[in-house]
Amino acid sequence: MARVVVATSGQPFGEGGHLVVVRSLVQALREAGHDAEAMVTPQNRFGRQAAAYLATWLTDVGQAQDGSRIDQVISFRFPSYALRHPAHVCWLNHRMREYYDLWEQFHAGLSPAQRVKEGIRRRLIHAADRWLLTRNVRRVFAQSRTIQKRLEQFGGVPSEVLYPPPPPRPYRCDGYGDHLFAVSRLTRLKRLDLLVRALARPEATNVRCVIAGDGEMRGELDGLVRSLGLEGRVRLIGSVDSAQLVEQLATCRAVCFPAYDEDFGFVTVEAFAAHKAVVTCTDSGGPAELVRDGVEGYVTAPTPDALAPALARLADDRQLAGEMGEAGYRAVSAMTWAGVVERLVIV
Q: Is the sign of the CA dihedral 259, 261, 267, 270 positive or negative?
């Protein structure tokens, strides 16, 4: 038995997929006979990252409160991989994306003075991350090929791909209802506006959809649904808890997840666990790695005109939705938390 700290970073009142993975891993470690506990290191507001890195670097994770030895650390997102421990493995979901793959978008919105300042910060973060991920940790696992490619592109950091399985929820399939389902935070990168616009295309006039989640785009999406005359076919239901999520997955026809360059995207494997097909986009990152076009769902170009026919095919053909959902279930059944524990524990 090993005593393992599972570390990620976060801010107060923040919730995200990385915390779901952390809790799932802690549970899996305990079920495997290890003593595991989650730890959240500082992340800090934008522009105050250096203090978060330093605080994490100075945190003692060598001993538990009772003085007993901590055998291993498994870290996730920035800057939790700054924790110092001789048996430290990083299972990375992402670094600070504004300084990496989202830099061009971030940079474009800055003033000239801000561009200089953020450019300096970016170089410092790149240098710190590369040192930490090549010198401070013994092994790096990427939660998708998308993340692995980013590690190679920015810093030449070697890694192994290890996909997270679905969280341990009581997934089920209660059939294939008359609506599609989408769930995520309502932010720009999740591109739920793309889904709504696709539903307004002539090919998708018979498609109904339930969208779950809250975020900065809630008001804009409500307005878009009204302006496109979709009130009778598209419902935004706000945030859902675990039981409500399982219920929605169990009863929908299929799931749509059109996010842009997603790190991994639990939505895909959770849909598969409920025997549901997934429609995603060619530039969606992690989800597009898991969905084979025409097998477990569809992978379309990220345009309303390309997305609409794929949604319509599943909405119009219950048998097709079932066959693709079963293919997804077979694929996800090979992903187990026991297998994850076996690869991540090195002591």
A: positive
Q: Is 261 helix (H, G, I), strand (E, B) or coil?
A: coil
What are the φ and ψ backbone dihedral angles of 52, each rounded to 5 degrees? -70, -40
The single residue listed with the structure tokens 């495997």 is 32
CA distance 118 to 124: 10
Ranges of CATH 3.40.50.2000 domains, the chain:
180-333
Q: What gap in Å lies between CA 158 and CA 165, rounded to an integer?
A: 22
Q: Which fold has domain 3-162?
A: Rossmann fold (3.40.50)
Edge-to-edge order in the sheet of strand 234-238:
234-238, 209-212, 180-183, 255-256, 278-281, 297-300
Question: Is residue 272 within 8 Å of 278, Cβ to Cβ?
Answer: yes
**What is d(CA 253, CA 275) in angstroms, rounded to the nearest whole number?**
10
Cα–Cα–Cα angle for 278, 208, 173, nearest 5°? Answer: 50
SS3 255: strand
CB 319 within 8 A of CB 325: no
Determine the Cα–Cα distance for residues 83 and 39; give it in Å rounded to an integer: 11
Asked if 57 and 110 touch (Cβ cutoff 8 Å), the reply is no
254 in Cβ contact with 268 (< 8 Å): no
Predicted local distance difference test score (pLDDT) of residue 347: 93
For domain 180-333, give the fold.
Answer: Rossmann fold (3.40.50)
How far apart are the C-alpha atoms of 35 and 79, rounded to whole Å?
A: 23
Query: Is the Cβ–Cβ distance between 109 and 117 less than 8 Å?
Result: no
**Residue 110, token pair as written in the block:** 């800055």
Contacts of 338 (CB under 8 A, 6+ apart): 28, 31, 32
Rg (C-alpha) for the chain, rounded Å, is 21
Q: How confident is the model at residue 46 (pLDDT cuts 50, 70, 90)?
A: confident
- Stretch 79-85: mean pLDDT, rounded? 97
Query: Whole-angstrom Cα distance, residue 126 to residue 284?
Result: 24
What does the CA dihedral 220, 222, 227, 228 come to, rounded to 10 degrees? 110
Decide if pLDDT at 45 tops 80.
no
Q: pTM of the predicted model, to two decimals?
A: 0.92
Longest CA–CA span in the chain (Å) reads 66
